[in-house]
Design brief:
5-stranded antiparallel sheet; about 10% strand; 3-stranded antiparallel sheet; alpha+beta
Length: about 425
């Protein structure tokens, strides 16, 4: 592999300074890519690109982190948060194709200026869940008695209570991926271990339209337990799946029935998934130059395709944005250092050396690169759903702040308990 620049040896990198720089850089995305008039956050930093409601949820949580770290004045964070919540509370809800949402859910992508549905996309269940997670984080953090912070909490409660999770099941136990006004519910349901843990917990904890425990049990019934490189774990190939729900949910030391039966928790499972990713890179079954002990991390990410080209004498097909994963999913040589960073709380002894080795990629203003012949390809874009997990998971590792904030949220606690979780912090009053 021909690197874009020569990285410093890992032992010469100042760990504290490196992590602080990565956090600050990730936080910057949500300040530079927000529309201050409505709080919408661009999906990626490309001119004319629409907002992503998942990015908004991550942004709402990032403002809380920003205040804590001294990057954003509390008054400014309150103003930005209140603008965002007012927009979602007042924007059009209904079955019109031009609306912003329906039944409390929102479309995956929204026009940055007017907030209406973009690209004929779907009303997204998981992206709405990530938005609501950020809404609840804001409500938990802004706990003052001033009228603005009181309004934040009132709007957050309204937005969560309005989501009709029961409707999103559409006559089946599992939650659907989404709905379109032209064709109705999408055929796919959330089955198999994936990023939907936060979705099911929020749906269970709803005080207005909760789903039954049977929905959660149907989801866990579809899980696949695998042994890879001698490591037993709940399988999901894409690394972000083992991180996204964890950005808000502290799953250390608590277990549902599935994890109880296997003698571990979801945090330990994410650790094992991280170990598998590193082992896969060392094994490198497809022979990509550069993979190894400190060069790993296969996840949903941008890519250099669609294209087919020669790479070290092998003709390979490259994807653009795709749900890459290992060891049984797409691997076209594209690695996502952001996904390595988001694994920090689970396996710091693996992640810190890898970040030190790849620090030049982060500071090249991008978070994805591909190992191939010739100059290393680096995505020209940043994505909110990449920078958000970096910021939040590094803060969980360094300060326990997002986790501590959300452990006190009654709705999330109720959802976890209804899902059958018990142990450690959940047992505390």
């Amino acid at each position: 592999m021909k690197p874009a620049s020569f990285p410093l040896p890992p032992d010469l990198i100042d760990e504290e300074a490196m992590l602080a720089a990565l956090q600050r850089e990730a936080f910057g995305y949500f300040i530079t890519q927000v529309n201050p008039a409505n709080g919408l956050v661009r999906d990626k930093d490309k001119q004319g690109w629409p907002a992503s409601i998942a990015a908004v949820g991550l942004a709402l949580t990032s403002y809380c982190v920003g205040v804590e770290r001294g990057w954003l004045a509390r008054d400014d964070a309150v103003e930005l948060t209140l603008t965002t919540l007012r927009f979602f509370a007042k924007s059009e809800q209904g079955d019109s194709p031009a609306a912003t949402g329906h039944k409390g859910f929102y479309y995956h992508f929204l026009d940055m200026d007017n907030g209406r549905r973009a690209w004929d996309c779907e009303l997204s269940s998981i992206d709405t869940a990530l938005l609501i997670a950020g809404v609840l984080a804001a409500a938990a953090y802004f706990d003052g008695d001033g009228k603005d912070e009181l309004e934040i909490r009132a709007l957050a409660d309204f937005l969560y209570r309005r989501v009709d999770w029961q409707w999103m099941r559409a006559r089946c136990q599992l939650l659907r991926h989404g709905w379109k006004p032209e064709t109705g519910f999408l055929r796919k349901c959330w089955r198999g271990y994936d990023e939907a843990l936060i979705l099911y917990v929020l749906a269970l904890g709803s005080p207005t339209f909760p789903v039954e425990r049977a929905s959660y049990d149907a989801w866990t019934y579809s899980f696949e337990w695998k042994s890879v490189y001698g490591i037993d774990y709940l399988y999901a190939g894409s690394l972000f799946i083992h991180q996204m729900s964890h950005a808000w949910l502290d799953l250390r030391g608590i277990q549902d029935d599935f994890m109880r039966a296997h003698g571990l928790d979801y945090a330990e499972n994410s650790r094992r998934a991280t170990l598998v990713q590193q082992r896969y890179a060392i094994d490198n079954p497809l022979g990509f130059p550069g993979y190894g002990e400190h060069c790993w991390g296969i996840s949903a990410s941008d890519g250099p395709g669609p294209a087919t080209q020669q790479s070290y004498g092998v003709r390979r097909s490259f994807r653009d944005y795709a749900g890459r994963g290992a060891p049984y999913s797409i691997d076209d040589g594209t690695l996502a250092p952001w996904a390595v960073a988001a694994s920090l709380p689970f396996a710091p002894e693996l992640v810190l050396p890898a970040l030190a080795q790849q620090h030049d990629v982060f500071h090249a203003r991008s978070t994805v690169f591909v190992t191939q012949q010739g100059p290393r390809w680096v995505s020209p874009y940043r994505f909110g759903i990449n920078d958000g997990p970096v910021l939040l998971m590094l803060d969980n590792y360094l300060h326990d702040f997002p986790w501590r904030l959300m452990r006190g949220n009654t709705y999330l606690r109720d959802g976890l308990v209804k899902a059958g979780f018990a142990g450690e912090w959940l047992a505390e009053q």
